[in-house]
């Protein structure tokens, strides 16, 4: 994770905690000192019973939703489970505050004597006020934890999705940013290094059909791509691709009524070029609907550049 992620998370959690604490702080400041020391119960039994029932129900629903997600249910239920558990804790706060304060405050009373006894008694005296005071901490911790978990989950999901398609050992990216910045000569130089097993550049070719329909795809070296791209082929294979051919996804083939050996036309520099469908594959989450041979665009106005390069290390080469 980037340092900015931690900074934003901490700042957001701190601000949310401070905002959430304003209400309880103002309310506590309006309580007269004598009233604050009064042992009178400020909550009715009915309200406590209602909180207890509502909190238990919400906790049960939340736990069930989380358990369902763990068992393989839709991840949308995870959000419902977290919200229900959060609401359950807020509802049960006043109910739990007194016994929890009694338990936690016992060692404090033993160590601090009269001062500890007064502090322990004050916390137990008004459970609702104690719960309201602790709620901002709960909100702050939940926000910080949730943001950190969300960022880590997104990072892991991207890593997993990327790894399902590319099976290389390393990824080389341009420090200049942008989607197209690494020239094919750079990829060729990598392939000439003895430390590199095979390298393939991944970029985009913004081609179009004769009727101006966009058919963007990846221009690839099929020899390197067969090693580095993990694609399931329904018909044909990666190495079948030649400069006058194209590999298409199963969905694109169905939508365009294409089959193995069908003709597929694109326009390059104003001229219509006929390509032969040489393979049909299942693209997964990253791969586009079309794969072109990079030699198709050689000596044309299209720049066959790459946003990143995937490569494998040669046998016997370690990370060091």
Structure in words:
There is one protein chain. The protein has 320 residues and is of the alpha+beta class. It has two domains: 3-165, no CATH class; 170-313, no CATH class. It contains nine helices and nine strands. Strands 3, 4, 5, 6, 7 and 8 form a six-stranded mixed β-sheet that branches. The chain has a three-stranded antiparallel β-sheet with strand order 1-9-2, with helices on both faces. A hairpin with a 2-residue loop joins strand 6 (263-268) and strand 7. Residues 40-46 have low confidence and may be disordered.
SSE layout and pairings?
Blueprint: H1 3-29, H2 33-36, H3 45-70, H4 76-112, H5 114-125, H6 127-165, E1 170-173, H7 184-192, E2 196-202, E3 218-220, H8 222-228, E4 232-236, E5 245-249, H9 250-255, E6 263-268, E7 271-282, E8 290-293, E9 308-313
Parallel strand pairs: 3-8, 5-7
Antiparallel strand pairs: 1-9, 2-9, 4-7, 5-8, 6-7
